Structure formats: structure tokens, C-alpha cells
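Batch job 17 of 40 flagged for manual review because the log was empty.
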Amino acid sequence: MNRVTRFLRSILCVFILVGSASASAGQNILYYLSQAGDYIGLGEEDTYTSADGTFTAYPTVPNVARVRFATPTFSHWWDLTVSAPDNAPLLPGAYEGAQRAPFKTAGHPGLDFSGDGRGCNTLTGRFDVLEIVRDANGAITQLAVNWEQHCEGFAPALFGQLRYNSDVPVIRRARINLDNPLNTRGCVEASSPQGALVSMNANDTTDATGGKSLLYNWSSTTGDVATTPTFSFNAPLTTDPASPTVVTLSVTDLTNNSISSATKSVCVSDTTGPVITINSPVPGQSVYGDTLVLDVTIKDAVDKNITQYEILVGNDYLAPISPSTGHARQNVLAAPKANGSIALTITVRAVDVSGNTAQRSVSVTQFP
């Protein structure tokens, strides 16, 4: 083989190496989901692509990979560094027991995700190298990494995925947001004897490339299903706190057929007391002798039949009655106890079957 032939073959080899990497190059994506309490991501979820800024893989040694993303004005910037333990080459595989990359100890891989002016002093975590390709000079041309990082070793995690010129799909972590406010028991407030209408939505309506090619599949232990970004169903009253209604969401990204799922438990309880209306007497009314009739209406959205109903006239307690129809009339006064007028306060108290109480009073003047 002469010198010219060797030269032409070397050019061809370099062309195949670089050309094949370029031909298979894919998306540049940085996606992270930060749990509440995580210092780096501040409990937020975000996605950056080449449309938002520049991805740069820095020249590095064989056991380290580092990629930086930055917006044009550096309003946002993020750095990811991963390294193999003990100066071993960084290859595809799972790396457990990671420590902060610049300060990792023997036997531990290195990990460091920081940016926007925030970084960890120490960290624990793990990562998976799904793809790594270098050119003839050792520079990274393709990289796909998923990681989990706990800043300062605390429980809240940041889950991240980085794709640099990679076709490996980004799999979003589906999340379920509950639209209903929660009551003091941490449940959705019941609105009827049947429970409440619960509304939920998926955390994201865009795919990994910023489009809307997502397939949603909702289901619940009530038997309800849906295939839209939002989900509403009638959840029953939770009589057993250990057995709430469970909702499952599966999201398929049709751009890469990746699937992510999430579950959420929701309970429904009644914390609203009955509504008492004293129809008569009216405040300040003058009554004579023992002619006063108390007319009361009691309503409750959940408990149609109020099981307890008490009346106090001044400090005198009258025997409770059960207004099964929600409306009652009864004579509440005996003959006047003295000459002249007497100021009386009549109080009605009711308790529903969930233990919620309500009270309403009216003051009248009684004459002989």
C-alpha cells in the first residue's frame, strides 16, 4: 500500500466517522422536573431546546462529559457534568452513588447540574448514560443522559434529561394537577350526598419538541376514563380515609412513542355545617303570652336529614326535635314569668352526620 492510498483511506475513515455522527444527530433538549424544596430547580419544571439558546459540549477527557445550555442573553444557563469513577472511560450504562463531580471520592461517579446562579455544595444522586459518541479527537458529538440529583443530600430531587445531537427520546414525567381547592381535611369539599365533581389536568400539553402530539389516557377507581388533557369525574364521599379515589394518567408522546405515567389520590369530605334559617320570629319582634311559634328551615348540601337539632330559649334548653323534612314549627314559650316585657334570645343549633355544627339566634321581646 503506497503513501497516497494510505492517505485516501485515512480521509475516508474520518469522513465515515464524522459523517455518520452528523447524519444521526438529533435534538438538543434539556428537560428537568424539580420537586418542591429542591434548591436548584426551585420546584419547577422546564424544557429548553435549540430554539431557546445554544448547547455546547466542552472539550474534555475520556472519563468526563460536560454540556452547557445558555440563552442568547444568559438570562438562563445550565451546566451538566457527569464523570465515570476512578478515571475510567465514560461509557453507556447506569452510574449509582454519584457525588459532586469536582469533589467525588474513589469509587464514585461524578454528577453536577447547576445553573441560573445556583449550585450544590455537596450532592448525592445517580445517572444513566444512554448514548455517548466522540469524534476522532475525543470531542463529544452525541450525548444522552438521564439523572437524579439531591442537593446537599436532602430528600427533594431534581430529575433531568439532556439530549445533545441525540435521537434518544426525552420521556417526560407526567404530573396530575388537581383543580379543586382542598378543605381543612386535605380533601375536596363534598357538594352533594353523592360526593363532588373533581377536575384534574395534565401538567403539560406539549411534547418534547414543543408541539402538541400527545395522547392522554385517564382512568380512576370510580370507573371513569378520558383521553383529553383534562379529566372530570364524580368522586364519592370518602368514608374510609385509607381508601381514597385513585386516578391514573398515562401520556404518550407520539413524536417518539415515549410513555410517562402518574397517579394521584383524592378524597372527598364534608366540612361545611348546616345552613339554619329562622323564618319566624324576626329580630326585635314583640310576642305576647305563649303564642310564639318558632319556624326553622335547615338545609345541608350533603346530609339531607339533620340528625340533631337543639333549641335554647335564654338559658333554658328545650328537648331536641328531628326535622326530617328540613323544616319544623313548634311553640317555644310558656306563659311570661313576670309582669312587663322580657328580652329573650332564641338559639337554634344543628349538627350534621359528619359532625359539622351550625348555630343561629334571634332576639325578641315577650309581653304578658
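Reviewer: the log was empty due to a logging misconfiguration, but the result itself is present. The helical segments are 3-23. Unflagging and moving on to job 18.
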